[in-house]
Amino acid sequence: MGLGAKTLTEYVTISIPRPLYERLRKALEGTGYRSPTEYILFLIRRALPDLESEDVNRRLRALGYRD
Domain for residue 25, yes or no? Predict the structure, then answer.
């Protein structure tokens, strides 16, 4: 790949109940989020570091490095 070449991101589909999706879509009107998907990605990116940190701490405790 040369300079400026973009890599393609692969996507998967996550299913949620349609009524929940519609509630979220309506709640997001006027917030600046372009779609429920954009908001859900924001939430996942915000929560993931905490989840990963908890996993690391749990593993360290299991190895006896943390109390």
Answer: yes
Domain count, the chain: 1
Sign of CA dihedral 29, 32, 36, 40: negative
pTM: 0.68
pLDDT in tens, the chain (67 residues): 566 667 888 999 999 999 999 999 999 999 999 999 999 999 999 998 888 888 888 888 888 888 7
What is the C-alpha to C-alpha distance for residues 1 and 10, in angstroms, rounded to an integer?
18
Q: Which structural domain, as residue segments, surrounds residue 31?
A: 18-62
